[in-house]
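Deliverable D4.2, example record:
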Amino acid sequence: MKAVCLTAPRRVVVMDVPEPDVGPGEVLVQVRAVGLCGSDLTVFDGDKAVPATPWVLGHECGGTVVSVGAGVDASLVGRTVVVEPNVPCRSCGACRESRTSLCPHRRILGMNVPGVLAERVVVPGDHAWPVPDDWPPQLLALVEPLAVAVAAVRRAGLVGGEDVAVVGGGALGLQLCLALVAAGHSPSVVDLDPARVAAAETIGARAHDDTRRYDVVLETAGAPGAVAGAVELAKPGGRVVLMGLPPRPVELPVSEVVRRGLVVLGSIIYDHPQDFRQAVRLAGAAEVRAVAAGLGAGRSPGEAALAFEQARSRPTKSWVDCSSWSAPGDEPDRE
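Output generated by the structure prediction step:
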């Protein structure tokens, strides 16, 4: 089968890779759509080391189940599913406490095991979430990052009437706005790019007013200064949820945290199965469908390098349409 593989930093090739074997408890998914995010860019750029090259990229995807292994309900065959790409060990202390996001033995598609930018991928049966067959491919690509947002909102412990801000209006920030609006909140968005703020406003968010301070601030940018900016936006006694992953250490204004009695919380991915289940439910909402429709056409696998470059700057999400594949070597070079 064909896959989009990283051969060197910022160089990808469509090439043949071995067909995956379906074991007990697993399903084989024909991939339809793959979304790209900042984590994928760290691999594409060579900032995050991978076990070997060539390396199959990608972790956000959905498609159609084409076969199942022993112990999996055969009625899944033919169903449209979204793939949950973080697979915990299920036996460590974190897993036993239902905090699978902290499992030190997680298998992460596209990061420490081969990814999903391929014709087909094998995943555990309970990590292939059935969704309506009429979902467009763009919507399939949105569910995994939506689960990241759902988990952060849950961990923030928001209650009715609290003011909330999202720092960073990129793809993850937009997903947070979707999750917050669905939960009955009207988040304010802080971003230097007016197009990103405008995209968030179309789904019920609003632009930040410089005079406002917030009960909860969710930071997604991971850029220098963003952490300090998030702390500055919090009311005394407020909560700051850090989601962005800066490429290097950043300063935390500890004196401000202490003097104003702030709570600083880190939120990484999501916990299986509750957050992904909630994201699947939420993805059917009109607001999420509207964002999916606004993504437009995806790049072909042969244009994957262009899709990665788009992921740096698009106000919504860059994605790859896997409904057709270019012949090996047809993709454009990107240095």
